[in-house]
Design a protein that fits this description.
By secondary structure, this protein is α+β, with helices and mostly antiparallel strands. It folds into two domains: 4-140 and 284-323, Rossmann fold (3-Layer(aba) Sandwich), CATH 3.40.50; 145-281, DNA Methylase, Chain A, domain 2 (Alpha-Beta Complex). It has helices spanning 49-60, 72-75, 80-91, 129-132, 145-150, 168-176, 193-196, 199-207, 252-258, 272-281, 285-300; strands at 4-9, 12-17, 22-25, 64-70, 94-102, 113-121, 136-138, 321-323. The longest helix has 16 residues, at 285-300.
Length: 332
Amino acid sequence: MSGTITAIIGGTIKAIIDNITVLATCPPCTGFSRANPENHLRDDKRNSLVRRSAQFAVALSVDIVVMENARELIRGNFKHHYEWFREHLERHGYNVFGRTYMLSRFGLPQVRERAIVIAAKQYLPLHTLDSLWDGWGASDEALTVKRAFEMIPANADGFDLSPDFSSDTVRRRIAAIPKDGGSWMDLLRRRDADELLTDAMKRIVANKRFGSYPDVYGRMAWGKPAPTIKRECSHVGNGRYVHPEKDRLCSVREMAALQGFPNDFVLNGAAISNMYRHIGDAVPPLISYQLAHIAHWILTGKQPQIKDILLPGTNLRQSDIMKKGQQELFYD
């Protein structure tokens, strides 16, 4: 077949377009993520797709491989999948770099820790997010919920799209939670606490085993990054996803802004819950835009300027980027 190669992987024959330069691969993180307690005990069969990614990279002879996943890919009980991935690529002429990062370090207005892996053929230089941001940092103000929401135009797609609360009790519970970072635990001081607390909350209090549960039904705080936006972010009972002031879940557009989507990105879905799920499952575009610049740098040898790696239409402004250890902001 002209212009194609035939890759035989796992007994399956596929015709694949030749001359692929960059392979961006994102095996499901569901089997690695600590959000599922069974992942500490059972090796999900989907985790093997990490190995398949390395096999496809070699079969296609790509120049660069980029992968994003849960931090447990590199640090968890089943990190042997990543180690196999790395060793397989190294045996076939690649250099591989993998590290976990708090993505707010690179401008995302969210507490999100993820594993980022970059591999390049050995004759190419290997650049990373560390080298891209070497000597630079984003201001604290740029990483806040307040900044992300301020940047959203009123006519943005999904600006005020959010689900209705399922019951009057849920509405009363949310209205009673203090603005700007409050939690359901603040309800314990109220006279009507018994009416507002769920049975699960009452059990948590009785057993004094809080863990991360205080975040459930919590409000975001204006002056802090958002909590991790997960695929289950479509309900207030799944995390600290309530608007800092308004008595509702943060809207589809607000969640997208916190996840690094540009404000002109059109969100589609048959149901609102699917839109939230797509946002929570996504690799933050603000970060993938930077990874694309790294790939271009590796291939061309042309280092991008820091101002060029800021995805337009997001929370980051050029004036937010500053030299580390200096108070002076960077301007063109």
